[in-house]
Input
Amino acid sequence: MFEISPAAQTTAGIVLLAAITVASGGWLLLQILRGSVAATDFQKAFYRAGHAHAGVLITLGLVCLLLTETTSLTDGWLWLSRTGVLIAAILMPAGFFFSAMGAGRTSPSRWIVLLWVGVVFLVAGLATCGVGLILA
Output
């Protein structure tokens, strides 16, 4: 067994508490799918994608956070490996949700840029963690 650093422990605790918001997003999605809240087919698809990405990326981000503890990464590389996927877990769902907001919307708004910024953090975080593990 390995020890987890105080920074990683604090980050994990905050992420787990923040993950509660995914449940409230699920409640909203359920209301939309039941027809209680009006949404276009485009909005339904983007809200589903946002909700799914949030849950999966939080889980993957926590795995990367723990795996980073076994590497010898330092400074900015340590930060990117530890938090890159978790930042993506915020930005990518936000891109899906925010770009689909608005009555009757049938295509994404400019908020879609958050999705692509999140993709950059996802790839950078995964690559840094992977390389850090290989070099450890």
User: Anything to note?
Assistant: Residues 6 and 12 are 10 Å apart (CA to CA). The chain is about 75% helix and 0% strand. Helices lie at 6-18, 20-34, 41-68, 75-100, 113-135.
